[in-house]
Amino acid sequence: MMLKPLSLQSPSRCASRISTSLLSRVFCSRNHPPLIDNKVETVFGIVTSSTSSKSMKESLKSSGVFLSNDLIDKVLKRARFSHGNPLQALEFFNYCGNRKGFYHTPFALDTMLYILGRSRKFDDIWDVLIDIKRKDRSLISSRTMQVVLARIAKVCSVRQTVESFRKFKKLAPIFDTTCFNALLRTLCQEKSMSHARNVYHSLKREFRPNMQTFNILLSGWKSSEEAEGFFQEMREMGVKPDVFSYNSLIDVYCKSREVENAYKIIDKMRDEDILPDVITYTSIIGGLGLIGQPDKARGILKEMKEYGCYPDVAAYNAAIRNYCIAKRLGDAYTLMDEMVSKGLSPNATTYNLFFRVFYWSNDLRSSWDLYQRMMHAGCLPCTQSCMFFIRLCRRQEKVEMALQLWNDMVDRGFGSYVLVSDVLFDFLCDLGKVVEAEKCFLQMVEKRHKPSNVSFRRIKVLMELAKNHEALENLSRKMAIFGHSMKVCESDDILVETPDLDSCPNFA
Predict the structure, then answer these.
(1) In angstroms, what CA-CA distances link 65 with 46, 333, 479?
(2) 25, pLDDT greater than 90
(3) Could you report the per-residue pLDDT of 279-331, keeping only the tens digit for each?
């Protein structure tokens, strides 16, 4: 079956993908002028090195740095990614907020709440929200709600998450379907579709569902049968599906290997004058790969162009993934070269598809060549790519390559220092390279990232055996700066601080 023509004005992939994490958009990377960066580092250094609220205030005043909204936003963002002491960030946030005539930005509020939520400081979260309600209630938005609920949902039950949602009725200036949608989106991302569905049915009489409500719920189905039933309920409530709704159903069919049903939905879209877009085609490409038809999937890329819709990076990545799964790396490389010839730059996901194959085939040489190509192109590896590469280096005992990766991470600021350093320190300690391990340890601390206690203990043993007591005392002092211990895990390349405290909000 031939696919139907696409609209020349296809909606943006990022705009239409409701399932994309909201937090990743809220805290997206920005480019800063060098002068501002220096001020950010100065203020951040004061906040993290101060031993008391009084000393922090005095140091900030004597620094001569003007604490503008823009600067405060960037310092809090820096605090978020440093995984430091959340109470220090809160002291800074409160100090700035208590200045006469000053009001925080929504970004500052949401970032502060994220930092507190990550450390499960739920009582502090509600204190901040109550204070903000008193000063400027308009800052509390549905986005704020989702930031808070996402952290609660990670460690608490669905019931407790819903109870937290209801507490916002007294805090938010508007408590409507948009807020209801924020709750559903949180449950889809942090819990499961079945939980989101149950909450939807229990609260849908209080909040009138709209198009966004159904699109949030449709985007997470794994069973085509359940998705079809929900799609029918959408129609029965008088909500007309849009291109995103249909794309969600097509995605479910493709992931379930029901590609023919996906084609039928495309016909139905055309009957309703809803033209498929690039996301529609990307799902089809992925579905064809799952049923072992990578060449037919590649043909979709050409077919799209005939109808005036040009593949984006995600569409090419889907086709490349198919060839990588089939271990046809020559065809995969050809597609990547084609991307470049069309003016599209391969991203970290593109390269990671190859790193994964090279890791499982134990091909360090190809991984190294690809890494060099990637860095030359100016594309920084994601954490998963770094982990594939560092583990290969350890497996084949290539210290120079491992240290090159580490130095690039330090110089250019990509990847997770914590996760990569655990493998690197273990590798260096196995080979007795205590000098190299000490240097990497100090580099990491200078970047204000805390090495794991396990890594520190391994280096400590080597230094004790070498009777290098002076260096050991220096490292011990560096570790003491970080205070309480942390456990670090990774989800979609985002590091999450998980303190030992296992607490939930007080719902009494």
Answers:
(1) 11, 50, 29
(2) no
(3) 999 999 999 999 999 999 999 998 888 877 889 999 999 999 999 999 999 99
For 489, list phi and psi in degrees, rounded to 5.
-130, 170
* Planar angle of CA 446, 442, 359, nearest 5 degrees: 100
Q: Residue 86, SS3?
A: helix
Report how far Cα 37 is from the mean position of its chain's Cα atoms.
23
Question: Are the C-beta atoms of 449 and 419 separated by less than 8 Å?
Answer: no
CB 398 within 8 A of CB 362: no
Neighbours of 223 (CB within 10 A): 11
Q: Distance (Å, rounded) from C-alpha 413 to C-alpha 31?
A: 13
DSSP-H helix ranges across 1-157: 13-16, 22-26, 34-49, 53-63, 69-82, 86-97, 106-118, 122-136, 142-155
pTM of the model: 0.68
* 497 pLDDT above the threshold of 80: no
Give the pLDDT score at 53.
Answer: 87
Residue 406, both tokens = 């580490």
H-state helical runs in 219-293: 224-236, 243-255, 259-271, 278-290
Residue 67 has pLDDT above 60, yes or no: yes
